[in-house]
Every structure is written in C-alpha cells, then in structure tokens.
Structure prediction request, 518 residues.
Amino acid sequence: MYFALIGIVSLALGGAVGYVVRQVLGKRSAGDAESKAEKILSEAKQKAQEVVQEGKNQHQELLIEAKEKALKIAEEAKQDELARRNDISEQQKRLEKRETMFDSKLLEIEDKKTRLEIEAKAMESTKADLESLRIQQTTKLQEIAGLTKDAALERLMTAIENDEKEALMGRIRKLEDVGEEELERKARNILSLAVTRYASSVVTETTTSSVDLPSDEMKGRIIGKEGRNIKAIELITGTEIIVDDTPNAITISGFSPIRRQVAKRALEALIKDGRIQPARIEEAVNDAKKQLATDLKKAGEEALYALGIPVTSIDPKLVSILGRMKYRTSYGQNALQHSIEVAQIATMVAEELGADVFICKKGGLFHDIGKAVDHDMQGAHPEIGYNIMKKFGFPEEIAYQSIAHHEDRPRTIEGAIVKAADAISGARPGARKQSLEQFIQRMEQLEHTASGFEGVEKAYAIQAGREIRVFIHPEKIDDLGSYKLAKDIANKIEAELSYPGEVKVTVIRETRAIEFAK
Prediction:
C-alpha cells in the first residue's frame, strides 16, 4: 500500500514536470518559426520587387518592338495601296479605250443597218413593181390570146403529148419499114456474135443445162401449138429453151443457175406426167420452186455437217440462205464449195497459229453469205453478209469476217486468217474463170437497168444478153406507153452499159382475167 502511494505520487510529479517542459519547448519552437517566417517573407518581398522591376524592363522592350513592326506594316500597306491604285488607273484607261472603240463600232453597225434597211425597202419596191408588170403582161397576153393561164397550159401539154405520140408512131413505122438489106446486116452481126460467144467454152458449159427426153417426139409436145408451151416455160422461168437436132435432149440456157434448175425440174416433171400445157406448166414450175427450196436447205445442212458445226446451232432460215450459194458462182467458182474450202483452210491455219478455231471455221463458212442475197438487197456483199449474221445473232468477231476478207488490214488475227484462206481458195489453178463472172455481171446489169423503170414487174436477160424481156403491169402502162418504155430502156442501156453488138428490148404487156366457178 505504501509503495503504491509512492508510485502514484511519483507518476503525478512526472506528468507535471513533463507538461512544464513541453510548454517551454513549445514557446521556443514558436519563436523560431516566427523568425523564420519573417525571414522568408522579407526574401519574398525582395524577389517580388526584383521581378516587377524586370517585368517593367521587358514590357518597355516589347512596346518598342511592337511599334517598329507597326510602322513597317503601315509602310508596306502604303506601298500596296499605291500599287493597287496604279493598276486600277491602268485598267480604267484600258476600259475607256475599249468603250471608245465599241462606240465607234456601234456607230458603224448602225450606219450599215440603216443603209441595208434602205436597200431592202428599195428592193421590195422594185420587186413589187416587177410583180405588177408581170401581172399586167400576163393579163395583156391573156386578152390577146383569148385564153386563161390554165387553159393555155392545158393546150400546151396536149400539144406536147400529141407530138410525142407522133414521134413514137413514127419510130414504130420506121422500124417496120426497115429494108431487107438492113435486116440481112443485123442477121450477120447476130450470127458473128453467137459464134464469138460459142468459142468461150466456160460460158457455154456453165450457163446451160441439159434435159433428157424419152424420144424426139417429146420435143414437139414441149414446143406446143404455135410454140405456146415453150413460150410459157421461157416467160415463167426466165430462161431460154433451145430445141435443136441433139437426139433425145433439149438445152436450157440462162446465166442464173437457180432459174435453170427450176426450169429443168419443171420440164422433167412435165415429161414424166405427160400433160404439157400452159396451166400445167405454171403448176410444175411452182412445185419445182418448192422442191428447190427443200434442196437448198439440205445443201446448207450438208455443208454444216462437213465442217462439224451443229445444225441446231444455226437458224433454219440461215441454213436455207447458205444452201442458195450452191447455185451461185464467184468468177466461175461454186460459191458454197468455195466457202467450205475457206472454212477448212482457215481452221487448219488457226490451229497452227493458236488462233480461235471456232471463229475461223464459222466465219470462213459464212464470209460470203451476202452473195446469196445480193440480188435482192442494195449494197456490196461484205456489208450485206455482216448485217445478215448480226440479224441471226452471230457475235461481232464472227460477223466481222464478212468484212475482214475484203479489208487491206484486218483488225483481228482471225480476220487475217480468213482473208488468207479466201485468197488461197480462189487462187488455186482452175478455181476461177474471169470471163464467166464478167458475163454474169453484164446479165445482172441488164436486168437491173430494165427493172429500175416504174411499172416494170420483172425483167429477164436471155440469149447471152442479146435480148432483154420486160414484163409490165398492164394497169399501170398502156399499149402506147409500152412502146415508149421500150425506147427508154434501150436508150438507158446505150448510155450506161457496154456490150458487143446490140441488145433487143422486148416489152410484154399481158392482161389475165381469172374467175372460179363454185
């Protein structure tokens, strides 16, 4: 207990002494802090004064520098302003000069306009005076003649028509009164021309077809009473039937292979049937045309088979057009066979050169397709062939072959190959004969010249071009007009075509009345 009291007292004394010591130490620390704070404050005030003094110096330097820049900018602005003013002054001078020029031009234009208006008024006045004089003259002429203008014109046209009729009738009488000596001279010319043409074996062999007869008695039946049967055959088919001393055979002559083939098939059918008369002849010719159309399609299909082109890939109409080339020639060379040769040669060349074989084969076969229809359409066969192939859906690279084989420099390698193949096929020995092609062209020109006249239904060149037969529409041209038409055709042939000897123009006007009893 005693010791406990002593401990408590000691603890209390220790606490009191500690408190006193802390108070003393705290006052001493506070005094040190205040002194330090005052020192820091005085240093800060001194630094602040130094910073302020330094800022004043920098501010003055910046002001001076800014004033110098401002003066420099103002000087530059003055210089720019002066330059702009000078430019504006120059532009104003140029504008004033232009305005002066424009004013002078306007004055000149106004003067010209005024002069033109005066001249136009003078011309109108002169025109009115001339019109008045013309009316007065016309009135005086009508009073003197006792006729109106329309009546005088009608009388003049009637007089011209009568004069033309007299000229035509005079020409007809002159032809009828030709002497025996003139007829003999013409006969000699015709015979010499026939002998000359017969000397060319190419024309004779390739423009005639032979029809076998069971006996020579059939020749008389083919000729018919007064030659009506043979005339009907010649008129309908556009060919010439030659009945000579050749035993058991007659000859069909004509430059068109299709016409000769139609005539030959019709004659063979008539001979087999035994009934030969004009009505039956027309039926036989129509049947022959239908059979020939079937054969043409078959010929086209055979050409496609020969080249390995699927027939189903070609339009049937185009196949028939291709088959028509079987009866066409190019300088004496069969056009269909030539096309097949071109396709085969072009295919082999394309295989060697690595070109498109399909384009060369198909393009080579159809490169001359325009020749199959060039009689019925205007234009050259390359353009016609191109249009035909485009119409039937051929791609451009194939259709182009029709044009490429006639170009100096084809734009595709396939075009160059087809062009070379065409030249190879045509240049081989014996492939072409120039004389036949010239002969056929002259026949076609004769028919085309005659067909160009109004009222002509059809025209056929026969007897190796020595005669042209023209069939006209009877409702459009009368008998007197047929004489005039024959004269006009003859004059046009003389003016436009070149030919040996002379060409006989025969105009045929026929009226048929048909009715059916029911």
The beta strands are 208-212, 240-242, 249-253, 329-330, 333-334, 456-462, 467-472, 504-509. The CA atoms of residues 196 and 411 lie 46 Å apart. The first helix runs from residue 2 to 145.
